[in-house]
Amino acid sequence: MERRKKMKKMVMLFLSVGLLFASHSSFAAGGPDFQEGLWEITSVSEMPGMPAMPSVKQNQCMTNKDYVPHSKEEKDSSCTVSDLKADGNTATWKLKCKSKEGEMDGNGTITYSKDKLSGNSVINMQIPGMGKMKITNKLTGRRIGSCK
Length: 148
Known about the structure:
Elements: H1 2-18, E1 37-46, E2 56-62, E3 79-87, E4 90-99, E5 102-113, E6 116-127, E7 131-145
Antiparallel strand pairs: 1-2, 1-7, 3-4, 4-5, 5-6, 6-7
């Protein structure tokens, strides 16, 4: 049971940082072509050998200055984003995280198209007492209205 709790905590941290890369909105001077407003972002994670994880949804007001999804928990994360690049409407990044639950590193890609976004990331985790694990995360998003 303790192993499950530790795994769940690491997965939640991953979900937080899997969306973290976006909080660094300066990666593309021109920014992607998308519609500002309230967006619904869905994240689905998969881990080999683990039961299916439920999708995680959150709403975020996205603007030309803050146009990439990020979680509410990112302030509590100890992650560093590097190699953040944009080519047209596609952004790529790498990240590295350290916490008392373990270490993670990975990379990802996200592409925007007006009122939709899609992307993925791969995270490799090293959890004390549990060994190495890999998480694949798929992101989708859609504009659902105006910001409130």
